[in-house]
């Protein structure tokens, strides 16, 4: 399979630059994965497609204000550092620009020395490992010095930083938001629960995979970056019971999907677990965990388009995207949503 098989045309003006005033008033394209039929709804209508006894699975990761602008201590050159992954203790994997200026031993200062980062390892594609030097609580320092790491296709400044967090964000550690969840309000989640639908939370901390494009022609040559995930015993039990009862598991977002499929591939059932996953889902993959997926519209030729193509069929997805473009849906992180049922 070639990367070009997952391309589609998108007018740049359809890339959403800001979130809507009300989260759940975004549009919802409903795609039947068996027939390819498309319906047009609003996100708050998603409840009509969920049945009593089903389980909705959300990723409760919380985005770090992980984009930092600092200066090299020796030259005062301006350096941008994006915290991607906590390796251990105060050692972090980071995306760095311009990386060519950063060698082992380089120290970058942020906020007049409130936070410092010493380079301890060099890797390819702009990746560096830093040891962070500070006093106090790192998250509080990042709240003062950092900004939300919005994707490069968003050019507008985000006025309210909380709009790049889900309303249920809890576990700090992501370099990007699980954007399918941005459409939910607390009121909508309450309505869903009142209908008898279970809500379960897993954690996957979104890392470099979100920022790294596919750079190979044959998609099978692409290697996914590993990301940390967790599932509790309580959630595993609920999901196994949902399966046993013949009810549906509806995953919110590709990150939740990758977590659920990783665990099912490892154990043949859901169970309490944590670890690192680099699962790459593309057409030909047989889904073992999820029945339906709530997701956003993804970048052309991205691994996320490949994942939804694996679930609904490449032709169905590309046709749905063509319709979405014609109907002027809003695309990407702050855009509209799709339900693959």
Q: Work out the helicity level.
A: 10-25%
- Span between N and C termini? 25 Å
The radius of gyration over CA amounts to 20 Å
Roughly what fraction of the amino acids lie in strands? 25-35%
User: What is the ordering of alpha helices and beta strands?
Assistant: EEEEEEEEEEHEHEEHEHEEHHE
- Number of discrete domains: 2
Structure description:
This protein is an alpha/beta fold. The protein has helices at residues 138-145, 186-194, 233-244, 254-267, 303-312, 314-326, and strands spanning 27-31, 38-42, 55-59, 61-63, 67-72, 78-88, 91-97, 107-110, 115-122, 127-134, 171-174, 198-204, 227-231, 249-252, 273-277, 292-296, 337-340. Strands 2-1-17-16-14-3-12-13-15 form a 9-stranded mixed beta sheet. A 6-stranded antiparallel β-barrel has the order 5-6-7-10-9-8. A two-stranded parallel sheet has the order 4-11. Helix 5 (303-312) packs across helix 6.
Task: State the gist of this model.
With 341 residues, the protein is an alpha/beta fold.
Structure keywords:
single chain, 341 residues, alpha/beta, QueA-like, Thrombin, subunit H, 9-stranded mixed β-sheet, 6-stranded antiparallel barrel, 6 helices, 17 strands, 19% helix, 28% strand, globular
């Amino acid at each position: 399979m070639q990367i070009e098989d997952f391309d589609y045309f998108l007018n740049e003006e359809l890339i959403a630059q800001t979130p809507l005033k009300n989260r759940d008033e975004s549009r919802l394209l409903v795609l039947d994965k068996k027939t390819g039929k498309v319906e047009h709804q609003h996100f708050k209508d998603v409840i009509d497609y969920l049945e009593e006894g089903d389980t909705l699975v959300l990723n409760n990761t919380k985005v770090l204000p992980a984009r930092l602008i600092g200066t090299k201590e020796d030259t005062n050159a301006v350096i941008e550092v994006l915290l991607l992954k906590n390796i251990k203790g105060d050692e972090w994997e980071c995306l760095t620009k311009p990386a060519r200026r950063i060698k082992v031993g380089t120290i970058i200062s942020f906020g007049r020395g409130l936070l410092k980062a010493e380079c301890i390892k060099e890797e390819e594609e702009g990746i560096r490992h830093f040891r962070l030097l500070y006093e106090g609580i790192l998250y509080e320092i990042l709240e003062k010095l950092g900004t939300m790491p919005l994707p490069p296709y968003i050019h507008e400044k985000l006025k309210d930083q909380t709009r790049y967090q889900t309303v249920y964000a809890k576990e700090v550690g992501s370099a990007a938001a699980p954007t399918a969840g941005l459409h939910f309000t607390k009121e909508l989640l309450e309505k869903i629960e009142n209908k008898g639908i279970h809500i379960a939370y897993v954690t996957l901390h979104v890392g470099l995979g979100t920022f790294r494009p596919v750079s190979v022609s044959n998609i099978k040559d692409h290697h996914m970056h590993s990301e940390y995930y967790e599932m509790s015993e309580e959630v595993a039990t609920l999901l196994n019971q949902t399966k046993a009862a013949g009810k549906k598991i509806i995953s919110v977002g590709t990150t939740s999907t990758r977590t659920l499929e990783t665990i099912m591939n490892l154990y043949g059932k859901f169970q309490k677990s944590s670890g690192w996953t680099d699962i790459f889902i593309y057409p030909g993959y047989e889904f073992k965990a999820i029945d339906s997926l709530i997701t956003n519209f993804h970048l052309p030729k991205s691994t996320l388009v490949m994942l939804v193509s694996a679930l609904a069929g490449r032709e169905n997805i590309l046709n749905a995207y063509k319709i979405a473009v014609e109907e002027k849906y809003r695309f990407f992180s702050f855009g509209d949503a799709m339900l693959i049922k």
